Amino acid sequence: MADDWQKLLVIGAGGHGSEVLSYVSDLAEQGQRVQLISFVDENKPRGPWLETEVIGTLDDLNSLVNSHPESSYLYITAIGNNHLRRDVVGKLESLGVRNLSAWTLRHSQALVGRKNEIGEGTCLAPGSVITTNVRIGGHCIINVKASVSHDSEIGSFSNINPGAVIAGNVRVGEGCYIGAGATVIEKISIGEWSIIGAGAVVTRDIPPHVTAVGVPAKIIKIHAETDNRVGP
Asked: Which of the 8 DSSP states describes residue 44?
């Protein structure tokens, strides 16, 4: 690999990890000089996986990066669980490794307008739409054909699932999970770490740490701040 290629490590060798591999391959074929060199996963054995390999745990990642201080490495998380994604990023940041930084994946088929802010470590999947004057925090997943309209804000570690629609002037708090095909109408606020079920239509503000489902969306559960659930 030439020195000007970016070396990428993906954390999470599961379904979303396989998607990230596909996205990175698309970008490389279109001329972006980034190469996925390996996956990191606490729950998979070392060895070949798909077109590359799993090198081990976060400790193994740390050893690899520290053993090549002359090289720069990028990472992106491929973990659907928002709490776990936050915990992994926290652990990586606590290592203080100078030659490892978060990478923002913007697929060539993502439509991103003007005056938007996209946080580090976020994934913009194919068909996702970010219109204008949108702020998206770090380490979010904006999945296939999800859309975020003007003047909206998505908090860090949120997951906007396929086909979800976030209208204009919406505030989505940190760590929220917006289910596939859900719609959040304009000027709505969703509190941090809340879950919106697939297909729900949110027509009024949702407080933090709850699950809301249905049309219109209604709260069906209040959950603890330490709840590690991904979705309803």
From this structure: S
